[in-house]
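Take just one protein record:
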Amino acid sequence: MPQLTPDAAPLQNANPSSQRLLSLDFMRGIIMVLLALEAAGLYEHLSQATEGTWSNPFFQQFFHHPWHGLHAWDLVQPAFMFMAGAAMAFSLYKQQQQGMTWGQSFRKTLKRSGWLFFWGVLDYAVRPQGLSFELWDVLTQLSFTTLVAFLIFRWSTTAQMAVCLGLLLLTEALYRLSHVPGFDQPFTDQHNFGNYIDWLLMRKINKGGWVAINCIPTAVHTIAGAIAGKLLLQNKTGKDQRGQENGWNNTKKLFLWGLLTLAAGYILDAAGITPIIKKIATSSFTLVSLGWSLWILTVCYWWIDVRDHQKRLKFFTIVGMNSIFIYLFFEIVGDRWFTKYISDIGGGLMKIIHIPDMLSNIISSLCVFGLEWGLCYFLYKKKIFFKL
């Protein structure tokens, strides 16, 4: 059984009374609220309503960049996978406190990865033209990155960072050194190595440019999240002087890590070495999105856990505590039935009182989201939390 390295050993001595950080639930809640609003169609309606106005560029930030470049929305999925890694650190610590062996934790993680893969495939399996096998869903990607992050979790931080670097170099090599006819243009949509692998695995290429081997570079997000989670576990905050010092030290480290990865990613792009492309998760994109994820966590952690501003966060944390459930709900149930059903009812009622179509669409999207949030609140009140 792998032994704890000195880097990981302090987890055994962490304060069991504070196994959760509210900032982690809050950040995860923000991510899920943004995803739920997107699934409800709100951003599409707002984009259409502001077309040709000064505010439209702002709402375009809620859509993926077409190819080379970065929109705010491109950071949501990396942040989701980053938070999964941070949550893993707290989960594994809890398992250690319960006396679980490495083998038992491995089997639990393997089972979780299996379920993530199953639900990720099921999410896109049912199409109007029949059954489909696709590997582009974030849960499918997460099933791989979770397993990788677990297998090296007890390594030293330096070793884990070396693995992250290795994954990015592997990604560069696969795209640049693979000379498959028709798929030998590293950063060209529909003609890169990722598209070729998709053709081998699924006999299809995603028209939007997404590729399944994004799971290789984005494993860096989950591993980095686990490293950050381990840091926060080892140096707990508190109201005493030592707790405050730990909190400030953690904040500085997270900020510095974010600064370094942001600088590295933007330099690779500006120098023309590797362009920032979210859809194939280039190394520059992975670094930049990781840097922003670290800075978002830094702000949440500093404000909520270090400065102790913990009021009026429940709106987001309620959703964050059932993140997998609500994601599957609006992706499967919402996409195929719930959203359209509620929108049709709302739209029909608002036509009676002559509300303009665009405003009606926006209100309907907010109603869909409100009902989904209400479902999370009901589960929260009943203390029902779905986990894989």
Residues 9-330 form one domain. Residues 241-270 form the longest helix (30 residues).
